[in-house]
Structures are given as structure tokens and as C-alpha cells.
Amino acid sequence: MTYQNPAPEPSPDSLPFWQAANRGEFLIKQCEECDQAHWYPRPCCPFCASAKTVWRQASGRGKIYSYSYLRRMAEPYVIAYVTLEEGPTMMTNIVDCDPEALSIGQPVTLVFKPSQDGEQAVPLFRPLEP
Amino acid sequence: MPHSALAYIAGAYEHPLRNAPDTSVAQLHAEVAFGALADAGLSKDDVDGFFCGPDAPGTGPLSLADYMNLKLRHVDTTNTSGSSYLIHVAHAAQAIAAGKCNVALITLAGRPRQQGKSKGALKRADDPNQPDFQWESPFGIQILGVYGMVAQRHRNLYGTTAEQMAWVKVAASHHAQHNPHAMLRDVVTVEDVVNSPLVADPLHRLDCCVVTDGGGALIVTRPEIAKSLKRPLVKVIGCGEAPVGQNGGYMEITDTGAQRSGATAFAQAGVKPADIGYVSLYDSFTITAMLQIEDLGFCPKGEVGRFVMDGNLISGVGRLPFNTDGGGLCNNHPVNRGGMTKAIEAVRQIRGEAHPAVQVPDCRLALANAIGGQLGVRHASSTIILERE
């Protein structure tokens, strides 16, 4: 039995992200005023407060910022922060891996997996093949 | 030179229960409130300001104020989770200085163990309107995992070891053996901690605090009233509060708000870390207390692993006696909100009323710090500095 991600509850301002995820696209928000990418996605830039934030396709590549292996859970899993190539760091899970062989700074790549109810693709990461 | 008083803590009371199957939440609040008033030598009718957090059942302060039949002219329900109660001390001092109240009552109480929440693996409250919720709940966020990530990153950046983290629990257990009310009174060794099961790498089971029923209360009052009472004078001379978020995805999760709340409190008090005789530190996990030691300035950033070794936090042994009641790791952590008990033990130390085996001799200055919310996600640090007069 492997960990099944609970489905998110999208809000009006996040719907494009979750719809794109179901098409296999990984979007992040970037500000057209100050050029900074941020996480989690917001309509107003958390750095300059501009409303001119736009969705852009992210590479899906990143590095493990930190992680913890929750090994006493009924379905053990690895929770992690991954720093995206585009700059910001996001919460996620590391999957398809040996949880005891992970390390901070390790390169990872995006993999979408279905949520518990099968309705929503959820952005997770797996170690990049050596 | 005496430091200027913001206000005085005239009463403090910690509920003796750690399991409260037969006591309602409102009753626990009332018992700690009246316990703190009795400790101060004041009566219920002296209270004109009431401060509480969301552990108070009902709408803000209304149900409890009615239950205790308080006649109030000032209320404050600031909620930064476990650090709320030290912020309440600061806000009470400000309200008293502004003439908004004379006798401020602060309460915390609850019975999580009776409501099936006796483990650390608590799920977060399910509020889909919380803007971060959909970006965290799908990944199984819970307290153990995020503190695990904080500890993992500190190990990676600074080489902090499991044995060094264990020393924090060892010190707490040395103190708890003298506290008859403590949840866990057995002295443990570094080996006991690192040989306990890993729960969220690199945290072992004994790196985690207890979850308890019960609570505590404080009475904050103006100088004239405090000086008219028959208790040792505990002066609040500095306060600071600092909420910390994820900065749009550019954060350093091993940095805590204690950097800012501590600096603010030290500046206001006009004292420095080396002057402090006793510290109460929020010890939800061993790593939580360690980051506060660094960020309050008791040792340079990254060096806390070496700092806590060899009993350096044990009263009578080391340089920085901490949590002499046994802390959240061993004594008490009512409703997962540890700020209240941190203030109470600091008051005992300033009064010279801690257990004789752990009392810091001639303790003139004490600091209490709390971290509320979740380190590594969103939290607020609050600091108070107390002086004996």
C-alpha cells in the first residue's frame, strides 16, 4: 500500500493550475512587473503587490531543499521542499525512490500522480536518474 | 540601573492535571484563572482585562467571560497558536500602560487527550479558505514532517547530530524528575533518545514533546497594584513578537522569528543574552529549542549542536539552565500550546519558587520564548524578558 495524496480543493484563483496539471502541464506564477517567480501561486505578487502575475510553464526540474521520511505512518511517505529551477521552493512528496537514500541538494524531476479520488493530478517529484 | 517596568506578572498557576477525563474545558479555564488570582492575592472582581486564544471555547472571549462572570473593559484574542500567551503578556502590558485595564487575566486550557489527539501526528484543521491549504494538504503535511524537515536541513547545513539533539531531551528529563506533576519523570540518556524509534527522519520518538490536558493562567497588572500584593515582584522589561512565513517561496526554514522577537525584547529591556540566568524555550521538539538558542543569541548560528552537549542546559551543571519544570518534552504541553507553561516556569525562577533541585541561584533575569504555528511552514515567535525587583 503506498501513500495516496488527498485531492486539493482548488479555489477560483488556482483553477488554471489544477486544470493544467490534469493536462500534464506544470505552471508557476511570475510577476510581469518585478519579473520574480513565486510559490504558491497568487493573483497578486507577494513581492511588489502587482496584479500583473501570469502563469508560465515551469521546467519541472529542481533540487531537494529538505525532506523527512514519515516512517511510522500506516502508509509511510516522504514529505519534502523542492527548490524549482525557476527559483521558488514548494512543498511536495518525493516518490519512486529509496527514502533512506535521499539527500538535500539531490536533483529531482516532476512526476504527476493521481490524487486519492483519482480526479486530480498532483505535482510530485522523483530523483533524477544518475 | 533598574530597568523600566512595562508591567508586572503578579500571579501564575499551572494546572496539576495532565489527563483530565472528568473536567470540562471551561472548568479547566476557570480553575487556572482562579488559581492564578489566588496566587496573586487578587479576586475575580479585580479582573478587568481578559486575554485568551482559540482554545477558549465559544466566540472569542465571550463564553468564558460569561462562565466566570467577569466584568471586563478590555479583551484580546490574539492567536499565533502556542506563542499566543507570551504575546498576551506583551499586549496586556501595553493595554495596562495605555490605561485600558488594571488587572489582566490570561488563560489557556484544554483536553486534547480526551479528544483522541494524544499523538504528535495531528492533521491540520481543515479550512479550504486557508490560502496555503491546497498547496500543502495534498502532500500529507503534518507537524512531525515539517519539524523533521527543519531538523534535516539544520543537520545538512551545520552538521548537527542526533546525539547533540538528544542532549536537549536529556536536560529536560533531568529537570522533570523533580516535578511531581510531570508527565514523564524518568531520566533518559543520549542513548535512550537515539535508540528510540525514528518517527520523521531525523526525529526520534524521544525528540518529541508530550501532549497533555490541563492548562495555565497568568495575571498581569500595573506597578502600583503589584507592589500592594504580598508576592515577589516579577517585572516585564522587554517583549517582542515576530510572525514568519515562506516569503513567496524564498525562505530559510532553519531561521526562526526568535531572531527578531528576541532582538526587539533585548533592545527594549536593555540587556543582552549573557545577562540571562534562566531561559524557558518552546520545546515542541528538541530542534525547536535548539533553533531558539541560536536565534536568541545564546550561541552563534550553526553552533547549537555543540552548545547543548554535556549537560549545558541542565540547571546546576551547564551555562544555560532551561525548562527547569521539564518543559514540553517531559512535563506539560497543554493543548499543544506551550507558551503559557514557558512563562509560568520563568516566573517561578524569578520568584525563587522553582523546585530547590533546579532553582537557579539568585535568578535576576529570565527569558521566555515561544514558537507558535509550525516552524518551516508559518510560525510566530514571541519573547518576554522578566526581572526580579
Automatic annotation (TrEMBL), chain A:
Residues 55-113 form the ChsH2 C-terminal OB-fold domain. Residues 18-52 form the ChsH2 rubredoxin-like zinc ribbon domain. It holds the Pfam family zf-ChsH2. InterPro entries: ChsH2_C (IPR002878), ChsH2_Znr (IPR022002), NA-bd_OB-fold (IPR012340), Thioester_dehydratase-like (IPR052513). This is OB-fold protein. It comes from Neorhizobium alkalisoli. The lineage of its organism: Bacteria, Pseudomonadati, Pseudomonadota, Alphaproteobacteria, Hyphomicrobiales.
Automatic annotation (TrEMBL), chain B:
GO terms for molecular function: acetyl-CoA C-acyltransferase activity. It comes from Neorhizobium alkalisoli. Residues 252-387 form the Thiolase C-terminal domain. The lineage of its organism: Bacteria, Pseudomonadati, Pseudomonadota, Alphaproteobacteria, Hyphomicrobiales. The keyword Magnesium does not apply. SUPFAM superfamilies: Thiolase-like. Keywords: Transferase. This is Acetyl-CoA C-acetyltransferase. Gene3D superfamilies: 3.40.47.10.
